[in-house]
Specification:
Distance between the termini: 40 Å
Structural class: mainly beta
Largest sheet: 7 strands, mixed
Order of helices and strands: EEEEEEEEEEE
Mean pLDDT: 95
Number of helices: 0
Number of strands: 11
Shape: globular
């Protein structure tokens, strides 16, 4: 059974940092495509960052050079380091195991999602 548990969300001021964590179980973290998507009310989910089994990373243009995705196999944990936060980064962030396509541009397919964690950035 795949289980993803996010933590680390909260409130922050613009220009500061937050780090999200996602503890994974039920599959092998290092060989799979993992990522972060986010969603604001009234809009669809938006891909933020992914990292595949070889360590290849992909970012949305809106977060490039500000966010960093990584994973620690010893802790079975996926991270999203978010620096230089902006009010437009406010959203619910979801950890995801992507099983079909490994990209930030689509979440098509049967993927596994965490419960989400709220990030709110004040200006």
């Amino acid at each position: 059974q795949v289980d993803l548990l996010e933590s680390g969300g909260g409130s922050a001021q613009a220009g500061t940092s937050l780090r999200l964590s996602c503890v994974a179980s039920g599959f092998t973290l290092m060989i799979n495509c993992m990522g972060w998507f986010r969603q604001v009310p009234g809009k669809g989910r938006e891909g933020v960052a992914i990292i595949d089994g070889s360590g290849r990373r992909m970012y949305a243009d809106s977060v490039k050079d500000r966010f960093t995705v990584s994973k620690d196999k010893t802790k079975y944990t996926l991270y999203l380091q978010m620096d230089s936060l902006k009010p437009e980064d406010t959203a619910v962030y979801y950890c995801v195991l992507l099983t079909t396509v490994c990209t930030v541009h689509s979440d098509a397919g049967r993927n596994y999602w965490g419960q989400g964690t709220q990030v709110t950035v004040a200006s």
